[in-house]
Amino acid sequence: MRPWNFSAGPSVLPVDVLEQAAREMLDWHGSGMSVMEMSHRGKEFMQIRDEAEQDLRDLLQVPDDFAVLFMQGGAQAQNAIVPMNLLGLAGHNQADYVVSGSWSKKSFKEAQRYGDVRLAASSEASTEINQQTQAGFSWFPTPDTWEVRATSSYVHVCANETIGGVEFNDWPLLSVPLVVDVSSNILSRPIDFSKVDMAYAGAQKNAGPAGLTIVIVRKDLLGGASEYCPSAFNYDLVAKSQSMFNTPPTYPIYMAGLVFKWLKTQGGVAAMEQRNQQKSELLYRYLDSSDFYHNQVEPSVRSRMNIPFLLAKPELDALFLAEAEKAGLLQLKGHKSVGGMRASIYNALPLAAVEALVAFMKDFEAKHG
Ligand SMILES: *Cc1c(COP(=O)(O)O)cnc(C)c1O
Predict the structure, then answer these.
(1) Torsions phi, psi of 123, nearest 5?
(2) Fewer CB in 10 Å around end: N or C, the chain?
(3) In the record's cofactor note, how is the cofactor described as bound (predicted)?
(4) How far is the CA of 75 from the centre of ligand 1 (A)?
(5) Which CATH superfamily is domain 268-368 in?
């Protein structure tokens, strides 16, 4: 059996998908070509692209008045591409950002280079919630505290802070467009497109391999890109060319397309959400029952995808990781900015993986606690 892979990204892919890609590597559907060797404008790849878009639309119930774009540069390129495309919308070059962790802080900093970009709210400082002190970036600023200017072109938030392990999904209905970074929780739960006007994600966490960025954007937000926006990053031009303005990342689109088909066979996003709830609850329940391990995120905004935890004895971190690896549990090391451990439990990781992790953690606690 393959070991269980808890990487935060690039991360685990469904075995079925990897096996199918291996089978089709030399000859895709009798074409005599690998997908990597095909013209992006040929009928074979057009079919792959069209099916990937349609399957993604089906899975996320993307309304018809939204464009689905397949881009490159990852989520961090979007930190610049979003303002270059959207800042001018309301005519004041303004946007407001909610900062709830490392990723949204980066988005905010990058966007400030392009216009009058302000903080709508931040959880960087610690706060009191239910008589508990919550450390910085371990809670989420609720929408009623956001300071949104009526003249802003959009508000930017991160749905799931991959490093801090904070997830928020209860979006308000705002009077300005809401742009959401869903890099690490896309397809793990539904997205409410009656409140979200644009969602974007690097594919490499929960949707496929690195190299593809998925952008889902309401069509009436297109067409207002700044003069200096690179044409290849202009949403309107990318949308008008069916993501073929320049050569798209063909192989990652194919792989993501296989993941979308796999998700459909698994019961779609609703089934995934249920599974992810079950998986994360199992791990949180154990963490909360133990004095040896600790997750510090405010319970109502704990991520279902990325679960950071600390050992009571940090001097055992290296041993924990070495023994975990021996037990077939890979890539549990926490992000260097926060230390400790992190279990990323994306769609492709089944409940059995979390059960194996909890069993290992119990055993480790019994030996060293
Ligand atoms: C990983 C990640 C990013 C950065 O993605 P790149 O594709 O490496 O640029 C941004 N936001 C979130 C929420 C992430 O998890």
Answers:
(1) -110, 25
(2) N
(3) Binds 1 pyridoxal phosphate per subunit.
(4) 5
(5) Aspartate Aminotransferase, domain 1 (3.90.1150.10)
For 35-93, what is each residue's pLDDT tens digit?
Answer: 999 999 999 999 999 999 999 999 999 999 999 999 999 999 999 999 999 999 999 99
Please list, residue by residue across 185-222, b when 16 or more beta carbons sit within 10 angstroms of its beta carbon and e when fewer do: bbbbbebebeebbbbbbbbbbbbbbebbbbbbbeeebb
b/e map of 27-56 (b: 16 or more CB within 10 Å)?
ebeeeebebeebebeeebbeebbeebbebb
pLDDT at 369: 85
Domains 16-265 and 268-368 share a fold: no
**205 catalytic per annotation:** yes
- Whole-angstrom distance, CA of residue 111 vs CA of residue 107: 6
DSSP state of 237: H
Beta carbons within 10 angstroms of residue 11's beta carbon: 24
Task: Give the active site residue among 181, 261, 279, 333.
Answer: 181
Among 281, 350, 342, CA closest to 102:
342
Q: At 357, list the tokens.
A: 């992790």
Pocket test for ligand 1, best of 184, 187, 338 (most atoms within 8 A of CB): 184
Among 98, 108, 162, which residue has the most ligand 1 atoms within 8 Å of its CB, making it the best to mutate? 162
Report the topology of domain 16-265: Aspartate Aminotransferase; domain 2 (3.40.640)
Proportion of the chain above pLDDT 70, given as a percent: 100
Check residue 227 and give its pLDDT: 94
What's at 23, amino acid-wise? R
Residue nearest to atom 5 of ligand 1 (CA): 75
262: annotated active-site residue: no
Q: For CA atoms 287, 291, 295, 300, give the dihedral sign.
A: positive
Whether the per-residue pLDDT at 125 is higher than 90: the answer is: yes
Flag whether pLDDT at 268 surpasses 90. Answer: yes
How far is the C-alpha of 345 from the C-alpha of 79, rounded, in Å?
25
Binding annotation = 41, 103, 162, 181, 204, 246-247
Break the chain into its structural domains and give their ranges: 16-265, 268-368
Q: How many CA within 13 A on the CB side of residue 9?
A: 23
